[in-house]
Amino acid sequence: MSTTDARMQPQPRALEGLPGAADLLPRFETPIVPQATISGHALVAVIAIMTFLASLTTGAVMLVRAAASEWQADVAREVTIQIRSTVGRDIEADVAQAATIARAAPGIAEVRPYSREETARLLEPWLGSGVALEDLPVPRIIVVRIPAGSAPDLARLRQELGEQVASASLDDHRGFVARMRAMSSAVLAGGIGVLLLVFAATVLSVMFATRAAIATNRPVIEVLHFIGARASFTAGHFQRHFLQLGLKGGLIGGGAAIALFALAELTGGRFAGSAAGDQFAALFGGSSIGALGYLAVLAQVALIALVTAASSRYTVYRTIETIH
Amino acid sequence: MVRFEHVGLRYGLGSEVLHDLTFRIDPHSFQFLTGPSGAGKTSLLRLLFLSLRPTRGLITLFDHDVATLSKDALSTLRRRIGIVFQDFRLLDHMTTYENVALPLRVIGHAEDSYREEVVELLKWVGLGERMWALPPVLSGGEKQRAAIARAVIARPQLLLADEPTGNVDPTLAQRLLRLFVELHKSGTSVVIATHDIALMDQFDARRLVLHEGRLHVYD
Question: Is B132 in contact with A26 (Cβ distance < 8 A)?
Fold first, then answer.
Protein backbone atom coordinates (compact mmCIF):
# COMPACT_ATOMS: atom_id res chain seq x y z
CA MET A 1 0.00 0.00 0.00
CA SER A 2 1.38 3.41 -0.96
CA THR A 3 1.68 6.27 1.52
CA THR A 4 -1.33 7.97 -0.04
CA ASP A 5 -3.42 4.82 0.19
CA ALA A 6 -2.38 4.39 3.80
CA ARG A 7 -3.57 7.94 4.53
CA MET A 8 -6.87 7.22 2.83
CA GLN A 9 -7.43 4.21 5.07
CA PRO A 10 -7.66 5.42 8.66
CA GLN A 11 -7.15 2.48 10.93
CA PRO A 12 -9.68 1.22 13.47
CA ARG A 13 -8.90 1.43 17.14
CA ALA A 14 -10.31 -0.22 20.21
CA LEU A 15 -12.83 1.66 22.31
CA GLU A 16 -12.05 2.13 25.95
CA GLY A 17 -13.80 -0.33 28.19
CA LEU A 18 -14.92 -2.48 25.29
CA PRO A 19 -12.36 -5.22 24.84
CA GLY A 20 -12.24 -7.51 21.84
CA ALA A 21 -12.09 -7.16 18.07
CA ALA A 22 -15.89 -7.06 17.79
CA ASP A 23 -15.90 -3.80 19.71
CA LEU A 24 -13.72 -1.96 17.26
CA LEU A 25 -16.04 0.88 16.39
CA PRO A 26 -15.20 4.08 14.56
CA ARG A 27 -15.70 7.56 15.97
CA PHE A 28 -16.77 10.80 14.37
CA GLU A 29 -13.50 12.66 14.79
CA THR A 30 -13.26 14.62 11.56
CA PRO A 31 -14.37 18.25 11.80
CA ILE A 32 -17.35 19.18 9.64
CA VAL A 33 -15.27 21.81 7.82
CA PRO A 34 -12.19 20.48 5.97
CA GLN A 35 -9.14 21.69 7.89
CA ALA A 36 -5.90 21.65 5.90
CA THR A 37 -7.00 23.02 2.55
CA ILE A 38 -5.01 25.09 0.06
CA SER A 39 -7.54 27.91 0.30
CA GLY A 40 -7.28 27.81 4.10
CA HIS A 41 -3.48 28.13 3.96
CA ALA A 42 -3.81 30.97 1.43
CA LEU A 43 -6.27 32.74 3.72
CA VAL A 44 -3.89 32.43 6.69
CA ALA A 45 -1.10 33.88 4.50
CA VAL A 46 -3.29 36.82 3.39
CA ILE A 47 -4.37 37.53 6.97
CA ALA A 48 -0.77 37.28 8.24
CA ILE A 49 0.57 39.67 5.59
CA MET A 50 -2.23 42.21 5.95
CA THR A 51 -2.08 42.11 9.76
CA PHE A 52 1.68 42.64 9.57
CA LEU A 53 1.25 45.68 7.30
CA ALA A 54 -1.59 47.11 9.39
CA SER A 55 0.46 46.59 12.58
CA LEU A 56 3.47 48.33 11.05
CA THR A 57 1.26 51.25 10.08
CA THR A 58 -0.22 51.38 13.58
CA GLY A 59 3.27 51.33 15.10
CA ALA A 60 4.45 54.06 12.74
CA VAL A 61 1.48 56.26 13.65
CA MET A 62 2.17 55.68 17.35
CA LEU A 63 5.83 56.69 16.84
CA VAL A 64 4.85 59.82 14.86
CA ARG A 65 2.33 60.74 17.53
CA ALA A 66 4.90 60.31 20.30
CA ALA A 67 7.55 62.23 18.33
CA ALA A 68 5.16 65.09 17.53
CA SER A 69 4.15 65.54 21.16
CA GLU A 70 7.84 65.29 22.14
CA TRP A 71 8.76 68.09 19.69
CA GLN A 72 5.97 70.27 21.04
CA ALA A 73 6.95 69.59 24.64
CA ASP A 74 10.61 70.34 23.90
CA VAL A 75 9.77 73.71 22.39
CA ALA A 76 7.25 74.53 25.08
CA ARG A 77 9.79 73.74 27.79
CA GLU A 78 12.01 76.64 26.77
CA VAL A 79 11.46 80.44 26.67
CA THR A 80 13.96 83.09 25.69
CA ILE A 81 14.61 86.52 27.14
CA GLN A 82 16.13 88.93 24.67
CA ILE A 83 18.06 91.98 25.87
CA ARG A 84 18.37 94.61 23.19
CA SER A 85 21.45 96.74 23.00
CA THR A 86 20.31 100.27 23.89
CA VAL A 87 22.37 103.41 23.88
CA GLY A 88 23.05 104.57 27.38
CA ARG A 89 22.39 101.24 29.07
CA ASP A 90 24.85 98.67 30.35
CA ILE A 91 23.81 95.51 28.54
CA GLU A 92 25.77 93.27 30.90
CA ALA A 93 23.94 94.74 33.89
CA ASP A 94 20.61 94.31 32.10
CA VAL A 95 21.43 90.67 31.36
CA ALA A 96 22.35 90.01 34.97
CA GLN A 97 19.22 91.71 36.27
CA ALA A 98 16.95 89.90 33.84
CA ALA A 99 18.57 86.58 34.81
CA THR A 100 18.00 87.34 38.49
CA ILE A 101 14.32 88.15 37.85
CA ALA A 102 13.91 84.95 35.88
CA ARG A 103 15.61 82.83 38.54
CA ALA A 104 13.29 84.29 41.16
CA ALA A 105 10.19 83.36 39.20
CA PRO A 106 8.52 80.15 40.40
CA GLY A 107 8.50 77.06 38.14
CA ILE A 108 11.79 77.75 36.39
CA ALA A 109 14.42 75.00 36.18
CA GLU A 110 17.41 76.75 34.71
CA VAL A 111 18.36 80.25 33.57
CA ARG A 112 21.39 80.48 31.32
CA PRO A 113 22.49 83.80 29.89
CA TYR A 114 24.53 83.45 26.72
CA SER A 115 27.89 85.19 27.14
CA ARG A 116 29.27 87.61 24.59
CA GLU A 117 31.53 84.83 23.21
CA GLU A 118 28.63 82.39 22.92
CA THR A 119 26.58 85.04 21.14
CA ALA A 120 29.46 85.62 18.74
CA ARG A 121 29.59 81.89 18.02
CA LEU A 122 25.84 81.89 17.35
CA LEU A 123 26.32 84.65 14.77
CA GLU A 124 29.44 83.17 13.22
CA PRO A 125 27.61 81.37 10.39
CA TRP A 126 26.22 84.72 9.20
CA LEU A 127 28.90 87.26 10.15
CA GLY A 128 32.06 85.16 10.06
CA SER A 129 34.67 84.95 12.79
CA GLY A 130 36.69 87.80 14.19
CA VAL A 131 33.91 90.38 14.12
CA ALA A 132 34.08 92.94 16.91
CA LEU A 133 30.62 92.65 18.42
CA GLU A 134 31.27 95.59 20.69
CA ASP A 135 30.76 97.83 17.69
CA LEU A 136 27.43 96.27 16.79
CA PRO A 137 24.06 96.55 18.58
CA VAL A 138 23.79 92.79 18.98
CA PRO A 139 21.10 91.67 21.40
CA ARG A 140 21.89 89.13 24.12
CA ILE A 141 19.91 86.05 24.88
CA ILE A 142 18.97 84.31 28.11
CA VAL A 143 17.61 80.77 27.77
CA VAL A 144 15.09 79.86 30.44
CA ARG A 145 14.27 76.16 30.81
CA ILE A 146 10.96 75.06 32.29
CA PRO A 147 10.76 71.59 33.85
CA ALA A 148 8.27 69.08 32.41
CA GLY A 149 4.87 69.43 34.00
CA SER A 150 5.57 72.94 35.30
CA ALA A 151 3.46 75.90 34.23
CA PRO A 152 5.21 79.12 35.29
CA ASP A 153 3.38 82.41 35.17
CA LEU A 154 5.03 83.75 32.01
CA ALA A 155 2.71 86.76 31.83
CA ARG A 156 3.89 87.92 35.24
CA LEU A 157 7.52 87.29 34.31
CA ARG A 158 7.03 89.30 31.15
CA GLN A 159 5.50 92.15 33.17
CA GLU A 160 8.31 92.16 35.75
CA LEU A 161 10.96 92.20 33.03
CA GLY A 162 9.19 95.04 31.25
CA GLU A 163 9.01 97.07 34.48
CA GLN A 164 12.57 96.47 35.68
CA VAL A 165 14.60 95.97 32.50
CA ALA A 166 13.31 98.24 29.79
CA SER A 167 15.37 96.60 27.03
CA ALA A 168 14.20 93.05 27.83
CA SER A 169 11.50 91.11 26.05
CA LEU A 170 10.24 87.59 26.65
CA ASP A 171 9.66 85.20 23.77
CA ASP A 172 7.66 82.12 24.77
CA HIS A 173 7.81 80.71 21.18
CA ARG A 174 4.02 80.79 21.03
CA GLY A 175 3.93 81.27 17.28
CA PHE A 176 6.49 78.55 16.70
CA VAL A 177 4.66 76.16 19.00
CA ALA A 178 1.40 76.91 17.18
CA ARG A 179 3.04 76.15 13.81
CA MET A 180 4.66 73.02 15.27
CA ARG A 181 1.32 71.93 16.68
CA ALA A 182 -0.36 72.48 13.32
CA MET A 183 2.40 70.57 11.53
CA SER A 184 2.44 67.65 13.96
CA SER A 185 -1.36 67.50 13.90
CA ALA A 186 -1.22 67.36 10.09
CA VAL A 187 1.41 64.59 10.21
CA LEU A 188 -0.66 62.69 12.76
CA ALA A 189 -3.87 63.14 10.77
CA GLY A 190 -2.05 61.91 7.66
CA GLY A 191 -0.77 58.90 9.59
CA ILE A 192 -4.24 58.09 10.91
CA GLY A 193 -5.60 58.46 7.36
CA VAL A 194 -3.01 56.01 6.05
CA LEU A 195 -3.78 53.67 8.95
CA LEU A 196 -7.51 53.78 8.16
CA LEU A 197 -6.80 53.06 4.49
CA VAL A 198 -4.49 50.16 5.34
CA PHE A 199 -7.01 48.84 7.82
CA ALA A 200 -9.84 49.12 5.30
CA ALA A 201 -7.68 47.30 2.74
CA THR A 202 -6.94 44.63 5.36
CA VAL A 203 -10.59 44.12 6.20
CA LEU A 204 -11.62 44.01 2.54
CA SER A 205 -8.87 41.62 1.49
CA VAL A 206 -9.60 39.36 4.47
CA MET A 207 -13.31 39.41 3.59
CA PHE A 208 -12.68 38.52 -0.05
CA ALA A 209 -10.12 35.85 0.82
CA THR A 210 -12.62 34.37 3.28
CA ARG A 211 -15.32 34.36 0.61
CA ALA A 212 -12.95 32.61 -1.78
CA ALA A 213 -12.10 30.01 0.87
CA ILE A 214 -15.81 29.45 1.58
CA ALA A 215 -16.50 29.08 -2.16
CA THR A 216 -14.16 26.08 -2.29
CA ASN A 217 -16.24 24.55 0.50
CA ARG A 218 -19.57 25.04 -1.27
CA PRO A 219 -20.06 21.27 -1.77
CA VAL A 220 -19.82 20.78 2.01
CA ILE A 221 -22.38 23.53 2.63
CA GLU A 222 -24.72 22.06 0.01
CA VAL A 223 -24.55 18.54 1.44
CA LEU A 224 -25.15 19.80 4.98
CA HIS A 225 -28.09 21.86 3.71
CA PHE A 226 -29.65 18.95 1.82
CA ILE A 227 -29.41 16.52 4.71
CA GLY A 228 -31.34 18.93 6.92
CA ALA A 229 -28.71 20.99 8.74
CA ARG A 230 -30.00 24.34 9.87
CA ALA A 231 -28.16 27.36 8.50
CA SER A 232 -27.04 28.26 12.03
CA PHE A 233 -25.44 24.80 12.46
CA THR A 234 -23.45 25.11 9.23
CA ALA A 235 -22.56 28.75 9.80
CA GLY A 236 -21.48 28.00 13.38
CA HIS A 237 -19.03 25.31 12.27
CA PHE A 238 -17.57 27.52 9.54
CA GLN A 239 -17.39 30.49 11.88
CA ARG A 240 -15.39 28.54 14.46
CA HIS A 241 -13.03 27.21 11.80
CA PHE A 242 -12.45 30.61 10.22
CA LEU A 243 -12.04 32.27 13.62
CA GLN A 244 -9.15 29.85 14.20
CA LEU A 245 -7.70 30.66 10.78
CA GLY A 246 -8.08 34.39 11.48
CA LEU A 247 -6.38 34.10 14.86
CA LYS A 248 -3.59 31.98 13.37
CA GLY A 249 -2.91 34.43 10.53
CA GLY A 250 -3.34 37.44 12.81
CA LEU A 251 -0.95 36.09 15.42
CA ILE A 252 1.66 35.30 12.76
CA GLY A 253 1.42 38.81 11.22
CA GLY A 254 0.92 40.68 14.48
CA GLY A 255 3.60 38.57 16.20
CA ALA A 256 6.10 39.40 13.44
CA ALA A 257 5.27 43.11 13.78
CA ILE A 258 5.65 42.96 17.58
CA ALA A 259 8.99 41.16 17.18
CA LEU A 260 10.12 43.87 14.76
CA PHE A 261 9.10 46.68 17.13
CA ALA A 262 10.78 44.93 20.06
CA LEU A 263 13.95 44.57 17.98
CA ALA A 264 13.82 48.27 17.03
CA GLU A 265 13.38 49.17 20.69
CA LEU A 266 16.34 47.00 21.68
CA THR A 267 18.52 48.39 18.90
CA GLY A 268 17.48 51.97 19.75
CA GLY A 269 18.43 51.37 23.38
CA ARG A 270 21.91 50.20 22.34
CA PHE A 271 22.56 53.31 20.25
CA ALA A 272 21.23 55.69 22.92
CA GLY A 273 23.89 58.25 23.77
CA SER A 274 25.68 57.91 20.45
CA ALA A 275 25.50 60.72 17.89
CA ALA A 276 23.42 58.62 15.48
CA GLY A 277 21.08 57.53 18.26
CA ASP A 278 20.58 61.07 19.46
CA GLN A 279 19.86 62.32 15.94
CA PHE A 280 17.39 59.51 15.40
CA ALA A 281 15.73 60.27 18.73
CA ALA A 282 15.59 63.99 17.89
CA LEU A 283 13.87 63.26 14.59
CA PHE A 284 11.59 60.38 15.45
CA GLY A 285 11.40 60.53 19.21
CA GLY A 286 11.91 57.16 20.87
CA SER A 287 12.00 53.87 18.95
CA SER A 288 9.43 52.27 21.30
CA ILE A 289 5.74 52.11 20.44
CA GLY A 290 5.04 51.64 24.14
CA ALA A 291 2.58 49.36 25.89
CA LEU A 292 -0.30 51.14 24.15
CA GLY A 293 1.22 50.34 20.76
CA TYR A 294 1.61 46.65 21.58
CA LEU A 295 -1.95 46.59 22.89
CA ALA A 296 -3.14 48.25 19.66
CA VAL A 297 -1.42 45.53 17.60
CA LEU A 298 -3.03 42.79 19.70
CA ALA A 299 -6.42 44.49 19.39
CA GLN A 300 -5.94 44.52 15.61
CA VAL A 301 -5.19 40.79 15.63
CA ALA A 302 -8.40 40.14 17.58
CA LEU A 303 -10.42 42.45 15.33
CA ILE A 304 -9.13 40.84 12.11
CA ALA A 305 -9.91 37.37 13.49
CA LEU A 306 -13.43 38.55 14.31
CA VAL A 307 -13.80 40.05 10.82
CA THR A 308 -12.72 36.69 9.34
CA ALA A 309 -15.22 34.77 11.46
CA ALA A 310 -18.05 37.21 10.77
CA SER A 311 -17.30 37.19 7.02
CA SER A 312 -17.41 33.40 6.96
CA ARG A 313 -20.72 33.35 8.80
CA TYR A 314 -22.23 35.93 6.47
CA THR A 315 -20.88 34.13 3.38
CA VAL A 316 -22.26 30.77 4.53
CA TYR A 317 -25.70 32.31 5.03
CA ARG A 318 -25.48 33.93 1.58
CA THR A 319 -24.37 30.63 0.04
CA ILE A 320 -27.30 28.80 1.61
CA GLU A 321 -29.62 31.50 0.26
CA THR A 322 -28.35 30.78 -3.26
CA ILE A 323 -28.70 26.99 -2.89
CA HIS A 324 -32.41 27.14 -2.34
CA MET B 1 -47.51 12.79 1.92
CA VAL B 2 -46.62 14.79 -1.22
CA ARG B 3 -49.09 16.64 -3.37
CA PHE B 4 -48.34 18.60 -6.54
CA GLU B 5 -51.11 20.76 -8.00
CA HIS B 6 -50.58 22.40 -11.39
CA VAL B 7 -46.90 22.85 -10.71
CA GLY B 8 -44.76 24.49 -13.38
CA LEU B 9 -41.06 25.21 -13.39
CA ARG B 10 -38.87 27.38 -15.55
CA TYR B 11 -35.22 28.37 -15.12
CA GLY B 12 -34.78 32.12 -15.36
CA LEU B 13 -36.58 33.55 -18.36
CA GLY B 14 -36.44 30.31 -20.34
CA SER B 15 -39.41 28.20 -21.35
CA GLU B 16 -41.07 25.88 -18.84
CA VAL B 17 -39.21 22.61 -18.28
CA LEU B 18 -42.05 21.13 -16.23
CA HIS B 19 -45.67 21.85 -17.18
CA ASP B 20 -48.74 21.61 -15.02
CA LEU B 21 -47.71 18.63 -12.87
CA THR B 22 -50.49 17.24 -10.71
CA PHE B 23 -49.87 14.04 -8.74
CA ARG B 24 -49.57 12.57 -5.25
CA ILE B 25 -47.07 10.37 -3.50
CA ASP B 26 -48.79 8.36 -0.81
CA PRO B 27 -47.27 7.07 2.42
CA HIS B 28 -45.66 3.59 2.14
CA SER B 29 -45.70 3.79 -1.66
CA PHE B 30 -43.06 2.83 -4.21
CA GLN B 31 -42.68 4.50 -7.60
CA PHE B 32 -40.25 4.82 -10.42
CA LEU B 33 -39.80 8.24 -12.00
CA THR B 34 -38.71 7.73 -15.56
CA GLY B 35 -38.47 9.37 -18.93
CA PRO B 36 -35.87 10.17 -21.55
CA SER B 37 -32.75 12.15 -20.71
CA GLY B 38 -33.55 15.83 -20.34
CA ALA B 39 -37.22 15.17 -19.63
CA GLY B 40 -36.94 16.90 -16.24
CA LYS B 41 -36.49 13.99 -13.81
CA THR B 42 -33.74 15.68 -11.82
CA SER B 43 -35.69 18.97 -11.78
CA LEU B 44 -38.74 17.17 -10.41
CA LEU B 45 -36.59 15.46 -7.76
CA ARG B 46 -35.14 18.86 -6.81
CA LEU B 47 -38.68 20.18 -6.38
CA LEU B 48 -39.44 17.16 -4.21
CA PHE B 49 -36.51 17.71 -1.87
CA LEU B 50 -37.04 21.45 -1.75
CA SER B 51 -33.91 22.58 -3.50
CA LEU B 52 -36.00 24.39 -6.11
CA ARG B 53 -39.12 26.48 -5.79
CA PRO B 54 -41.81 26.07 -8.44
CA THR B 55 -42.59 29.04 -10.66
CA ARG B 56 -46.28 28.25 -10.34
CA GLY B 57 -48.61 25.80 -8.67
CA LEU B 58 -48.82 24.35 -5.18
CA ILE B 59 -46.56 21.80 -3.51
CA THR B 60 -47.72 20.29 -0.25
CA LEU B 61 -45.21 18.20 1.69
CA PHE B 62 -46.21 16.38 4.85
CA ASP B 63 -49.33 18.59 4.94
CA HIS B 64 -47.31 21.83 4.71
CA ASP B 65 -47.51 24.30 1.84
CA VAL B 66 -43.78 24.63 1.17
CA ALA B 67 -44.17 28.17 -0.23
CA THR B 68 -45.17 29.47 3.21
CA LEU B 69 -42.46 27.77 5.27
CA SER B 70 -39.47 29.51 6.84
CA LYS B 71 -35.89 28.39 6.14
CA ASP B 72 -35.65 26.58 9.46
CA ALA B 73 -39.00 24.90 8.92
CA LEU B 74 -37.81 23.73 5.50
CA SER B 75 -34.65 22.30 7.13
CA THR B 76 -36.81 20.43 9.61
CA LEU B 77 -38.97 19.11 6.77
CA ARG B 78 -35.91 18.09 4.79
CA ARG B 79 -34.86 15.82 7.66
CA ARG B 80 -37.88 13.65 6.85
CA ILE B 81 -36.58 13.16 3.32
CA GLY B 82 -33.59 11.03 2.34
CA ILE B 83 -31.87 11.87 -0.91
CA VAL B 84 -29.43 9.80 -2.98
CA PHE B 85 -27.67 12.06 -5.45
CA GLN B 86 -26.65 10.86 -8.88
CA ASP B 87 -23.10 12.05 -8.13
CA PHE B 88 -23.24 10.71 -4.53
CA ARG B 89 -22.03 13.96 -2.92
CA LEU B 90 -20.03 12.25 -0.21
CA LEU B 91 -17.67 14.53 1.69
CA ASP B 92 -14.14 13.51 0.74
CA HIS B 93 -12.53 14.56 4.02
CA MET B 94 -14.73 12.27 6.08
CA THR B 95 -14.65 8.49 6.42
CA THR B 96 -17.48 6.36 5.09
CA TYR B 97 -18.72 5.97 8.66
CA GLU B 98 -18.67 9.72 9.22
CA ASN B 99 -20.46 10.43 5.94
CA VAL B 100 -23.23 8.00 6.79
CA ALA B 101 -23.53 9.34 10.36
CA LEU B 102 -23.65 12.97 9.20
CA PRO B 103 -27.48 13.35 9.07
CA LEU B 104 -27.69 12.21 12.69
CA ARG B 105 -24.90 14.52 13.73
CA VAL B 106 -26.50 17.59 12.17
CA ILE B 107 -29.73 17.01 14.07
CA GLY B 108 -27.76 16.96 17.29
CA HIS B 109 -27.74 13.26 18.23
CA ALA B 110 -24.92 12.18 20.54
CA GLU B 111 -22.52 9.83 18.81
CA ASP B 112 -22.92 7.13 21.46
CA SER B 113 -26.60 6.92 20.57
CA TYR B 114 -26.04 6.11 16.89
CA ARG B 115 -22.59 4.55 16.51
CA GLU B 116 -23.72 0.93 16.54
CA GLU B 117 -26.71 1.69 14.34
CA VAL B 118 -24.47 3.26 11.68
CA VAL B 119 -22.03 0.35 11.80
CA GLU B 120 -24.91 -2.10 11.49
CA LEU B 121 -26.29 -0.25 8.45
CA LEU B 122 -22.84 -0.11 6.84
CA LYS B 123 -22.55 -3.85 7.28
CA TRP B 124 -26.04 -4.32 5.84
CA VAL B 125 -25.11 -2.43 2.66
CA GLY B 126 -21.85 -4.37 2.41
CA LEU B 127 -19.50 -1.63 3.57
CA GLY B 128 -18.59 -3.14 6.94
CA GLU B 129 -14.97 -3.44 5.91
CA ARG B 130 -14.82 0.02 4.35
CA MET B 131 -16.17 2.18 7.14
CA TRP B 132 -12.75 3.73 7.82
CA ALA B 133 -12.07 4.44 4.15
CA LEU B 134 -12.31 7.91 2.67
CA PRO B 135 -14.57 8.32 -0.39
CA PRO B 136 -11.74 8.92 -2.90
CA VAL B 137 -10.63 5.30 -2.51
CA LEU B 138 -14.13 3.80 -2.73
CA SER B 139 -15.34 2.23 -5.97
CA GLY B 140 -18.41 3.64 -7.75
CA GLY B 141 -20.63 0.93 -6.27
CA GLU B 142 -19.27 1.48 -2.78
CA LYS B 143 -19.88 5.20 -3.04
CA GLN B 144 -23.39 4.49 -4.24
CA ARG B 145 -24.10 2.27 -1.26
CA ALA B 146 -22.56 4.78 1.14
CA ALA B 147 -24.79 7.50 -0.36
CA ILE B 148 -27.84 5.26 0.08
CA ALA B 149 -26.85 4.46 3.67
CA ARG B 150 -26.52 8.18 4.40
CA ALA B 151 -29.95 8.79 2.89
CA VAL B 152 -31.69 6.19 5.05
CA ILE B 153 -29.79 6.38 8.35
CA ALA B 154 -32.21 8.92 9.85
CA ARG B 155 -35.19 6.71 8.85
CA PRO B 156 -36.75 9.20 6.41
CA GLN B 157 -40.42 8.97 5.53
CA LEU B 158 -39.64 9.70 1.89
CA LEU B 159 -36.59 8.44 0.00
CA LEU B 160 -35.61 10.05 -3.30
CA ALA B 161 -32.92 8.42 -5.44
CA ASP B 162 -31.57 9.96 -8.61
CA GLU B 163 -30.28 7.25 -11.01
CA PRO B 164 -29.09 5.09 -8.10
CA THR B 165 -28.02 2.28 -10.41
CA GLY B 166 -26.46 4.45 -13.09
CA ASN B 167 -22.89 3.70 -12.07
CA VAL B 168 -23.10 0.03 -11.13
CA ASP B 169 -23.21 -3.33 -12.91
CA PRO B 170 -26.53 -5.21 -13.27
CA THR B 171 -25.83 -7.52 -10.33
CA LEU B 172 -25.18 -4.64 -7.97
CA ALA B 173 -28.14 -2.78 -9.46
CA GLN B 174 -30.33 -5.71 -8.49
CA ARG B 175 -28.89 -5.71 -4.96
CA LEU B 176 -29.52 -1.99 -4.59
CA LEU B 177 -33.09 -2.40 -5.83
CA ARG B 178 -33.65 -5.09 -3.20
CA LEU B 179 -32.33 -2.65 -0.64
CA PHE B 180 -34.87 -0.02 -1.73
CA VAL B 181 -37.64 -2.60 -1.65
CA GLU B 182 -36.64 -3.55 1.91
CA LEU B 183 -36.79 0.08 2.92
CA HIS B 184 -40.20 0.39 1.31
CA LYS B 185 -41.41 -2.63 3.24
CA SER B 186 -40.22 -1.01 6.45
CA GLY B 187 -42.56 1.93 5.75
CA THR B 188 -40.58 4.41 3.69
CA SER B 189 -42.07 5.89 0.53
CA VAL B 190 -39.58 5.49 -2.27
CA VAL B 191 -39.16 7.45 -5.50
CA ILE B 192 -36.43 6.16 -7.82
CA ALA B 193 -35.58 8.27 -10.83
CA THR B 194 -34.17 6.03 -13.54
CA HIS B 195 -34.26 5.36 -17.24
CA ASP B 196 -33.18 1.75 -16.72
CA ILE B 197 -36.14 -0.24 -18.15
CA ALA B 198 -34.63 -3.55 -17.01
CA LEU B 199 -34.48 -2.32 -13.44
CA MET B 200 -38.13 -1.21 -13.50
CA ASP B 201 -39.20 -4.54 -14.95
CA GLN B 202 -37.79 -6.30 -11.88
CA PHE B 203 -40.28 -4.76 -9.50
CA ASP B 204 -43.91 -4.09 -10.15
CA ALA B 205 -44.44 -0.52 -9.04
CA ARG B 206 -46.18 2.68 -9.99
CA ARG B 207 -44.48 4.57 -12.80
CA LEU B 208 -44.33 8.34 -13.17
CA VAL B 209 -43.28 9.01 -16.74
CA LEU B 210 -42.01 12.45 -17.69
CA HIS B 211 -42.14 13.32 -21.35
CA GLU B 212 -41.44 16.79 -22.70
CA GLY B 213 -42.02 18.27 -19.25
CA ARG B 214 -45.43 16.61 -18.76
CA LEU B 215 -46.12 13.83 -16.31
CA HIS B 216 -48.02 10.62 -17.10
CA VAL B 217 -48.86 8.37 -14.17
CA TYR B 218 -49.23 4.58 -14.63
CA ASP B 219 -50.56 2.96 -11.46
Answer: yes
Which whole-number Å values give the CA distances from A189 to A51, A178, A197, A284, A297, in the listed order?
Answer: 21, 16, 12, 16, 19
CB contact under 8 A, B71 and A231: yes
> What ipTM goes with this model?
0.89
Show me where the domains of chain B are located: 29-52+72-218
| Residue A236 near chain B (CB below 8 Å) | no
Identity at A190, one-letter amino acid code: G
Q: How far is A226 from chain B (nearest CA, A)?
A: 7
How far is the C-alpha of B37 from the C-alpha of B41, rounded, in Å?
Answer: 8
- A319 contacts in chain B (CB < 8 Å): none
Residue A14: list chain B partners with CB under 8 A: none
CB atoms B102 and A12 under 8 Å: no
Nearest to A34, CA basis, from A209, A224, A207 = A224
Candidates B106, B114, B143, partner chain A, best to mutate (most A CBs within 10 A): B106
Residue ranges covered by each domain of chain A: 35-72+179-323, 85-166
Nearest Cα residue in chain B from A31:
B94
CATH 3.40.50.300 for domain B29-52+72-218, yes or no, is yes
**What pairs with residue A140 in β-bridges?**
A83
Backbone dihedral angles phi then psi of residue A81, each to the nearest 5 degrees:
-105, 125
C-alpha angle B213/B216/B217, rounded to 5°? 140
Q: Could you list the pLDDT tens digit for every one of the 324 residues in chain A?
A: 344 444 444 444 444 444 444 456 778 888 999 887 888 899 999 999 999 999 999 888 888 888 777 777 777 788 899 998 887 788 888 999 999 999 988 888 899 999 888 888 888 888 777 777 777 788 889 999 888 777 788 888 889 888 898 888 988 877 777 887 788 788 888 888 988 998 899 889 888 888 888 889 999 999 999 999 999 999 999 999 999 999 999 999 999 999 999 998 888 767 666 666 666 665 555 667 888 889 999 999 999 999 999 999 999 999 998 886
Which pTM value belongs to this model?
0.74
Question: Are A227 and B103 inside 8 Å of each other by CB?
Answer: yes
Closest alpha carbon within chain B to A10? B132
Judged by CB atoms closer than 8 Å, whether chains meet at A25 and B115 is answered as yes
